[in-house]
Amino acid sequence: MRGRITIAIDGFSSCGKSTLAKALAKKLNYKYIDSGAMYRAVTLYALDKGIIKDHLLNTVLLIAALPDIHIDFHFNTDTLKSETLLNGKNVEDRIRQTEISALVSPVSAVKEVRTMLVELQRSYDEHKGLVMDGRDIGTNVFPNAELKIFMTADPEVRAQRRYDELVAKGYHTTMPDVRQNLAERDRIDSTRADNPLTRAEDAIILDNTDLTEEEQMEFALEKAHGVISQKKTMYL
Fold this sequence. Notes:
Elements: E1 6-11, H1 17-28, E2 31-34, H2 35-48, E3 52-53, E4 56-57, H3 59-65, E5 71-76, E6 81-86, E7 89-90, H4 98-108, H5 111-122, E8 130-134, H6 137-141, E9 147-152, H7 155-168, H8 175-191, E10 204-207, H9 213-233
Parallel strand pairs: 1-8, 1-9, 2-8, 9-10
Antiparallel strand pairs: 3-4, 5-6, 6-7
Helix pairs in contact: 1-9, 2-4, 2-5, 4-8, 7-8
């Protein structure tokens, strides 16, 4: 569609990728896809089916189970929020629990899992007008995205944000546990063999250590409007 673009937002855990992506999509009247929710849903399935036991993932069993995993998104008109569906059931709350956060990186490192979900993610981009966040959106899923933003922040600031978020939701945790979880997720995401977390060469860096959500939105919106205006002139 003329003038509409694909926006890829990548970055480390607890940098506010989803918050920014959702708000940006709403502002532009674009579709928003939470790629991280897909990997969390697969992790939840593996946990429920005993494919993960004592924090150990049985990769062979997970790969064999992939044809039985179906993920979709539903927009709740009452809450005005997107909800993740796993085999037809709303699992939005369950996939956000700390147990899933601690297990999702090993699951997302499995090549066959990534292949399946990347194919699903790419299917959403048929008509442009899409904002997607994750860890390899700009480098692997949509390497030709017109706008790529790579988000980062000081590790201690990220840990504090994550801790505050969990406490606000009623989860019991500690700052040391949150720091350890984030550090381990960063390590796995950045060193996995299949499409590791890395900044695309043409991605714009957004370090939001000292930025408010409003300032981040202003930054992203300015970049998006610039690219959209440039694309529109191509059709004049």
